[in-house]
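Hey,

The postdoc asked me to send both predictions to you directly instead of through the lab channel. I've kept everything plain text so nothing gets mangled by the mail client. Protein one:
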Amino acid sequence: MIEQNGWNKSIAYGTFHWTDSQTNEYSNYGEQKNISNMNMSSLTENFHLYSLIWDASSLKIFIDNKQLISLSNSNRAPFDNPHYILLNLAMGGNLGGDIPQNFNKGQMEIDYVRVYQ
């Protein structure tokens, strides 16, 4: 999952969520990077390429071909079953922050979505 918070658009979050197959409990692993350290100036202007490279050994998330995060695929984090793509413009909450009273619309523009197998 690639996320940004509502108050600091210079940080990109990469997070994986799963159910631990040994304990049956919720698990996650994530990292955050300042986009300037990835040689980017803004994710809110222009189109960007968001990628997930998923194979038997690992999952890697990229923004404009620059790696944001990697997770080793294991028997405890078994990313070996079908998943779905969710594109979401979430607002409010712990990550989204306060929504101004005068807010009336938001926008997410998507040029294309491709899945290769």
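Protein two:
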Amino acid sequence: MNGIFYGVGVGPGDPELITLKTARLVEQADVVAFLVNGRGESQAKSIAAAHLRSGQTELPIYMPMSEDPAVGDKVYDEASTKIEASLVAGSNVVFLCEGDPLFFGSFAYLLARLQTRFQCESVPGISSPHAASSALNLPLTMMKESFTVISGRHNDVFVEQALLNFDSVIIMKAGRSRPKLIELLSKTCRTNDANYLEYIGRENERIVSDITTLSADELGPYFSLFLVAKSPGDLNGRRA
């Protein structure tokens, strides 16, 4: 009998934000898989460390920092083959995902490769936009306000239209596009609405509420985003 493949969200960084269901599945798992960097480090594993137990098989998956889709496809093909072997052997495999497994999550790519042949389940986790909103005590939406989430890798026209047409905007993967995004926020007169956050919920968390203090030409890390929304105290500025 084949094992079950679980994608579990461990949240943005604070270990106390792991759900009870995720904690239980991690503790009961036969195999625990997670992404690692070139130094063999895994943020997802470190978040869930308190729930790992001796005797579990660990399956680290090295993911190079590359925007080439072919690189990612090769990694996910190889990883899904290893996971499949464990599932066929009857082992349950839990894949640790930072944030939520189906929100910009690597689990989605593995799910696409395995779900037609194996039982797959996902457990939601707290995503970085919600963690950012909480860190700022800033509502993402109120009343009839519109809200969207986009990637900083979109072209300038796409980002500009989102900033002009939506009341609240989350810009994910903002680091490498930070100079461009700062310029577009100024162009659309959204600078005062914008907050910039890095490594939310972690020891090296950084929050910048005045983005004019950011370097106009410096890049940021992968785990960064802009949260663009009116202050809840500005009742006249929040659309009814």
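Summary for protein two, as requested: Strands lie at 5-9, 31-36, 57-62, 93-97, 120-123, 147-151, 168-172, 194-198, 206-208, 224-228.

Thanks,
C.
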